[in-house]
Each structure stands twice: as structure tokens, then as C-alpha cells.
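TASK: fixed-backbone design
INPUT:
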């Protein structure tokens, strides 16, 4: 009976590891998709001086969310991991800021897309905030 119990525990550990890894990769994919969606959105906008400058900023910050998440997953210590996740949260918040400065010229499709991107940045901010809290 001891043998089957240890086999059960090993299979549970493997299942937990697989679940953790799939969540990790899901968030990597999600942050990548967020950065891609931001870039596609910026390409559509009116080419005003403000949109060009704000677009550059939001492109940088949206890409930085995922790049720092990848760095967090390769961190060397718990402290390094927490710091990188905090940077992810900060960059997601910054993305929201720049998105809200974008001039959509009252185009309802652009406004809707901006709201969707803003919502995704908010959700990412909350996810990273939760990770920070649980890593303490």
C-alpha cells in the first residue's frame, strides 16, 4: 500500500507542475497577444503628433509587460522574481495611462478597441498584483 501511495503523490506532484507550467505559458502568450494587439491598434490611428508620441510609449510599455514576465520566470531568486513581477505590474499600469491619452478622433470602433485594450491592461495589472501578494 505504501508503494501506491507514493505513486499517487508523485502523480499529483506532476499534475501540479504541469498546471503551474501551463498557467505560466498562458500568461506569456497573453502578454504577447496584448503587445501585438496594441501595435495593431496604433497602426490604425490618425497620425497626429500626440498619437505618434503616445503610440511609441504604449508600444514600449505593452511589450515590456511580457518581456519582464519572461525575465521573472528565469529569475535567480524569489526576490528577483518579485521585483520583475512588480515591473510587469508597473508596465501594465503605464500602458493604461498611454492608451488613455491616445486620440481616437471620436471614432467609435477605435474607442471600443481602446477600452478593450485598457481592460486587458487592467486585468494584467491585477494578475501581476495577485502574483506579487502570493509570492510574499
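OUTPUT:
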Amino acid at each position: 500500500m505504501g508503494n501506491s501511495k507514493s505513486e499517487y503523490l508523485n502523480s499529483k506532484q506532476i499534475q501540479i507542475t504541469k498546471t503551474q507550467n501551463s498557467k505560466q505559458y498562458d500568461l506569456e502568450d497573453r502578454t504577447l497577444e496584448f503587445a501585438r494587439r496594441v501595435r495593431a491598434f496604433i497602426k490604425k490611428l490618425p497620425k497626429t503628433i500626440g498619437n505618434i508620441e503616445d503610440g511609441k510609449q504604449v508600444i514600449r510599455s505593452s511589450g515590456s509587460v511580457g518581456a519582464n514576465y519572461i525575465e521573472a520566470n528565469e529569475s535567480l531568486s524569489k526576490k528577483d522574481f518579485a521585483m520583475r513581477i512588480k515591473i510587469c505590474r508597473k508596465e501594465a499600469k503605464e500602458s493604461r495611462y498611454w492608451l488613455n491619452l491616445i486620440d481616437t478622433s471620436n471614432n467609435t470602433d477605435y474607442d471600443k478597441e481602446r477600452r478593450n485594450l485598457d481592460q486587458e491592461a487592467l486585468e494584467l495589472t491585477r494578475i501581476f498584483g495577485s502574483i506579487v501578494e502570493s509570492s510574499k
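COMMENT: The CA atoms of residues 93 and 125 lie 6 Å apart.
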